[in-house]
User: What shape does this take?
Amino acid sequence: MHRTGELYGQFQTLDQQKESATLGMWVFLITEILFFGGVFMAYTINRHAYPTAFGVGGNMLDLGLGFGNTIVLIASSFTMAMSVWSAQTSRKKAVPVWLVATLALGSVFLGIKVVEYKQKFDHHLIPGHGFDITYCSNNPSACGLSGKALEDEKKEIEEGIRAETDDPNTPEGLARGLIALNAHAQLYFSLYFGMTGLHALHMIIGAGLLLWLIFEGFKGRFDANYNTPVENIGLYWHFVDIVWIFLFPLLYLINRHLA
Amino acid sequence: MIAVCAFFALVICAAVIYFFFKYQRKRPDEVGVPIHGDMRLEIAWIVLPFFLLMAMFGWGAVIYVDYRHTPNDTLDISVIGKQWMWRLQQPDGRREINELHVPVNRNVRLIMASEDVIHDFSVPAFRVKMDVVPGHYNTMWFRPTKSGRYHFFCSQYCGTNHAVMGGWVTVMEQDEYAKWLSGTLASEDPVAVGEKLYSDLACSTCHQPDGKGRGPSYNGVYGSHVKLADGSTALADDNYIRESILQPNAKIVAGFQPVMPSFQGQVTEDQIAALTAYIKSLKDQAPPGKPGAAESATGKK
Amino acid sequence: MAEHSEHIVSPKIYAAVLTALLAGTVLTVQAAKIDLGRWNIVLALTIAVTKMTLVILFFMHGKYSSRRTKLIIASGFFWLAIMLVLTLADYTTRHPEPSRSQLQPTPARTGSVPSGFSA
Amino acid sequence: MSSVQQPPLSPQPLAEQQLPREHYLNATYGIRSWLLTTDHKRIALLYLISVTFFFFVGGIFATLIRIHLLTPGGYLVTPETYNKLFTMHGVAMIFFFLIPSIPAVLGNFLIPIMIGAKDLAFPKINLLSWYIYLVGGAFVLYSFATGGLDTGWTFYTPLSSIYSNSAVTPAVIGIFINGFSSILTGLNFIITVHTMRAPGMTWFRLPLFVWANYATSIIFVLGTPVIAITLLLAGLERMFHMGFFNPVYGGDPILFQHLFWFYSHPAVYIMILPAMGVVSEIIPTFARKPIFGYDFIAASSIGIAVIGFIVWAHHMFVTGQATYAALAFSFLSYLVAIPSAVKVFNWTATLYKGSISFDTPMLYGLGFIGLFTIGGLTGLFLACLGLDIHLHDTYFVVAHFHYIMVGGAIMGYLGGIHFWWPKITGRLYPEYLARIAAITLFVGFNLTFFPQFILGYLGMPRRYHNYPPEYQVLNVMSTAGASILALGYLLPMIYLTWSMRYGKIAGKNPWPATGLEWTTDSPPLTENFHETPVVEWEPYDFLHRPELGLLGATSKKPAPAHGDD
Assistant: This one.
């Protein structure tokens, strides 16, 4: 196979250049593993300390949206892989088409994320002064809660309070339990926003890179002899997908069997 | 251990210096003997230090495990760290600020918590030290063997007045300790007692004479009209001082934050009287800011 | 050398991986709804790790890359494991003294107390 | 041809030498050609200027600290200012001087030349990382200028995330940004060493300096992201009242320390490993014999990098972490002493039967061995659980890490600067002044920091703006030493700057040394070599290199094996 493309001055051959670029991307990705590793560490320790509050917090997320997002992101990984394949097999026309599909799916993901964030904001689940884990069960109409869902949420918060308090038999003890639950649930939501926020930031960066690829792809630049950018940005995109593969069960599926 | 380390330090330095002079270059084009290495030597200086290091590790580990494992028959003192003072409470409820009285030859356990940031309770003379972490109880224990007064420090950096967040551990004979627990101090000049309390209770960390601390200066306060945060004024008389010590947030001086903790239950009536006497004695001191415009200067800060 | 990493994976494999990933997602949601005690998290993570392995091996061509690349990937996870395992070694062997979960947090300046809960 | 008297010897007749007609410094002119350069040598010089700036910023803070501590009461500055001084000293020195110093200056300049490449694998990313460093530095300077920083360089929560009233946010952002500069530099080095080596430059012919920087890069790449995320979380806690470590929400401040030291302990090895690399170059050159145990020194660099990652919680023995964890970490900390000891033993053995000269780099190199030995051995005290209870957070710790960082890293850095100065500028520095400076530094350093060991042993806690009067004598000694030290740092600044213009022309290989970098012009071309070099000799082999003009040189044939025989 004969490579084409610009040979940068520091390299002797195009093969060497391509190898360096791919290897460089992988090294970058392992720094990303450690980067996300830090938040995962914080998550592990805090969940280990407060399993109940994390369960209560996790069940306040919208499972449907999270599940949908997972599907969307996995599909985008597939389309990304297909664009790399198209480039490797010199299907020049197909490359940007698959890339556009990837970008579209990525945008859907981010759109759903915005909806979710907005929902959390309305439900008083942003850590800080206004945080109130009981907001929805006290104002069911504001959250669109009714019937069994409302009963479940109330029951769950009550169980959470009982688990967090030192004395479930007195009103003072229950009040302390509520304060504890509310505090520890804020830890959960801090981690939720921190982790999904970082992930979303990576998605946004990835979308920017995709835009550039699409632009170049329509010019027909990527083929079997020159496809390093598609491949490397593909690696990045798959990595972001992997992060979400872990975030989804860790954030959304902590305690679903209780509800 | 020092001996082992010193030995190695000396051997290395001596070898370097010896080689340095012994094998000094004698002519500019001279080359050293091409020795590439010696497997036996390499293995020797990997294995031998390993055993030495393991010996040190074992020795340190035994001490540490002993230190972290509290015996059962302890005198429990509760310690609370707060920016920038220590509150210590005897088992019978008696509280002290930046002072700790313990009996000699008795195992003492400190159960420590922090109200704000991480502090560290350290008594160099006893070779003990433990961080005081918010949201978490840490304990440490020691057994004083000689009576006397020993410094204790905060040794985890905790903010502006970290360096003055310390005090004294007083180790007393058992019977003296019992007397101290039940009785009071011998009577002295109330102003001197008050002045001592001013530093012992760490009033001085906030109420600095120049008025730049977190609380107002005492200088010239007594008998003056103090401007309060809500706009009113109050006459600084004995009752005002008493209230400020016991319910500090009842009247807040303009320009200051309600950050002072209550000393209710930690000071006796005698001590309040002594503190009042001390503040009275500062009546004629120039207050901070322009002389004569003390209160307004403080108020506009 | 680079030719080795130039292995072209067929779309059929991609489609198979996609199916497996989607199936895994459904499976993990269903599994979470059954109460397995502490095994819920184990199962969820096992599924997640499997999915990740599929993505790395096929979508990211990990299966076909050079030993050097494989070593780099492995070292990333190895270091992550160091961090997790050694930190957990501390947390899981802490003293049975009053632990922080038994302490009530002080209602402090940034915390907020909810306006009463009526269950 | 073995014992024939060789003609021109080292140092070669200098007057006849000329600078090469074209080299990287005069290839292009103008400020744009520097600010937009992708030449690793020019980027190294840009780094040299910027890290020197931060060194003097940190140095001024250090001077003020020492003057303040002359008297027990400490009347020079207020407690608040004092806290800001030592915090800013730490931040400037650690994140903006020590960490980038040797890798980004000497590593950048030398790694491509040493392995026979035209440049690093990603020259644009290299330039980018310098700009990232500048942006990070600008944020930190902004923080210094608008209220300073009083959290300690360790940024322990909740002091940093909730209680401090100083400009923590910009500083945290600055260090976060600066982290990416480190990551990209490390990434660049790793890829370069893997893919850009010249023909014949096998892994076991790599100079030990390259091995050391490779090990450092591993830490850059695997450790730095963790500090980035940790400080980001602390910053989010401060800015948006989120909770990760906040005890108010039930979070654990100790977790911050775990994450912080997961990077910051290996960061110590980021500082010392490259310095070890420099010393591993200097010692064989000036003892003029092959390094003793090449394989072991190379392997110990990687060993230190790897083991260095699993010892971090020895900074936390008194935080209330689990006893078992403390035991494990103490044990692992002792393990990391072994590769360090192996290096020291090997350097010392290299001197045996050498032909040792007094040149300045050698003085720094030998100073490094002595100071690093003391610093390393006192580390054993701190790794010892029982002793650490007493010594933790006292001046003993301060003295220990200054012996490693200043006595080790800065000695190595200055030694390296002097050693490669002829290569960087094409000119020699004034030898006698340089020797005086090296000795001044050595004396001043020991006078400053040795008393601090005793202070720490006596129990004086660190980060105190005042202290009980019984500690005064030792503090005065320390301050006196610091003034000598300050003089010792100013001296090289002056004569090195002077020599850039007026120094004697150095020629290709003034020492002579065996590395590939000494076979090209001084200063080198933009492309480093006129033609791609082919390496046919083993590292540090003086005997089979007749072109070096040394006594007893035989054929140019490579020796059969590279190392221990």
In short: The mean pLDDT of chain A is 90. DSSP finds nine helices and no strands in chain A. Chains A and B do not touch (no CB pair under 8 Å).
